[in-house]
Design goal:
By secondary structure, this protein is an alpha+beta fold. The chain is built from 10 helices and 20 strands. Strands 6-5-14-15-16-13-18-17 form an 8-stranded mixed β-sheet. A 6-stranded mixed β-sheet has the order 8-2-1-12-20-19. A 3-stranded antiparallel β-sheet has the order 3-7-4. A hairpin with a 2-residue loop joins strand 19 and strand 20. Helix 1 packs parallel to helix 7 and helix 2 packs across helix 7. The two termini are 31 Å apart.
């Protein structure tokens, strides 16, 4: 068994791993988070059943918590209600895909962070601690911080995101030329739709938009993605997720005649934009340093699996630690995660292609494909089942 574990990063991946370790009475761990502890502005997050199932291992029936919002349907719509694909609007029932009836949830990311922090003490998580150097000395890793302090461990877990400071190799970060636009409409009540259990996907050429409610107070999260001719490059600094973007300009980018979407666009007044980056390759381990979440396999967020993969990584690594896999831990972890992560990334890139079609003939074919998936249980199972039914405790994704 490892004597001491240091987790770099106090986000979803790091906190999930810490919670499972503590639940299993492994208490000799520390989390170091480079930023100050504070809640961010409301941001929607999707927790698909594969993530909810693992969080249920942590806190049985946690999904009955009123802070998490249940999703039952996926609606796929053209941005322009008057175009030739309007009759191909698709509505998929997501409830009968999951074998064990684990729900599809959404929430404010702050709610999930607070849920994961509640059982951790100030002796286990430290803020304003930025890693500047890691030094390996036989089986010990010495971690140096920007404030001059140091700590030691025999297992280092990097969970500090796409722009990981502990990965030490940020040459693998690449631009995608996509930009994300995000915000939350508080207390949004639509005149045209009373549904609050649906994720709406709006498609149009080189852009798409996703909207969904994140709580029972009718707070609506929206995320727009557009491809830009602007060339973005990674400069070695973190991407600023707090840069306001003019709401009127956002409306012009995603302009729609669809009354439901137009109502949403007319109501919003606060939008934030940032460039999307991804990693050129997946990094799972280096000696006795393990990478989880976006620090390992950050990719384009077009399959709503960013948080889910981080949660899966954390649980799988925890299981290997508790099974006392100390020799070749990285190899065991790689073998457990590489294939699934690669498949999710491939699906995300397929969605890049499908969501941003411009050719009218291909758009019609896409609409027909979505209609087939909508009507056929087997097609829906093939499309979503292998993602949603994943269970790290089972050898089969479909039980």
């Amino acid at each position: 068994m490892f004597k001491k574990i240091i987790i770099i990063g106090g986000g979803i991946a790091g906190l999930t791993l810490a919670n499972f370790l503590k639940k299993n009475n492994f208490n000799n761990f520390r989390i170091y988070e480079r930023f100050e502890r504070k809640l961010s502005r409301p941001t929607g997050i999707q927790l698909t059943p594969n993530a909810v199932r693992i969080l249920d291992f942590l806190d049985s029936r946690f999904f009955l918590n009123n802070n998490f919002h249940r999703i039952n349907y996926l609606s796929i719509n053209p941005v322009h209600s008057g175009d030739f694909t309007s009759k191909f609007e698709v509505r998929m029932n997501l409830q009968n895909i999951v074998s064990d009836k684990i729900p599809y949830l959404t929430c404010d990311r702050n709610i999930l962070i607070k849920f994961l922090e509640k059982n951790l003490t100030p002796k286990e998580i430290f803020y304003n601690k930025q890693v500047v150097q890691t030094i390996k000395d036989h089986n010990i890793i010495r971690v140096k911080f920007s404030d001059g302090s140091e700590d030691y461990c025999d297992l280092l877990v990097s969970a500090d995101g796409m722009f990981s400071k502990s990965r030490l190799d940020n040459n693998i970060i690449k631009s995608t030329n996509f930009y994300a636009y995000r915000g939350v409409l508080k207390n949004f009540y639509s005149k045209y739709s009373l549904e609050n259990d649906v994720v709406r996907l709006w498609l149009s050429g080189n852009k798409h938009l996703v909207t969904y409610f994140i709580n029972n107070q009718n707070n609506l999260s929206f995320t727009g993605i557009s491809k830009s001719s602007e060339k973005t490059t990674y400069t070695g600094d973190d991407v600023n997720y707090s840069i306001p973007f003019p709401a009127d300009q956002f409306r012009s980018i995603f302009f729609s005649e669809n009354k439901i979407l137009r109502e949403t666009l007319d109501t919003l007044h606060e939008v934030y934009r940032w460039p999307i980056f991804s990693l050129k390759k997946r990094v799972f381990y280096r000696d006795n340093q393990i990478f989880i979440g976006d620090s390992s396999h950050g990719t384009v967020p077009f399959q709503a699996q960013g948080a889910a993969l981080a949660i899966e990584d954390s649980y799988v690594l925890y299981e290997q630690i508790i099974k006392n896999v100390t020799n070749n831990l990285g190899v065991f972890y790689f073998n457990k995660r590489n294939s699934r992560v690669r498949r999710i990334i491939l699906r995300s890139h397929l969605n890049v292609f499908l969501f941003h079609l411009k050719n009218p003939f291909l758009i019609i074919l896409r609409s027909i494909l979505f209609k087939i998936i909508e009507k056929s249980f087997l097609a829906k199972k093939l499309m979503f089942g292998w993602i949603f039914n994943y269970n790290p405790r089972s050898s089969s994704y479909f039980f």
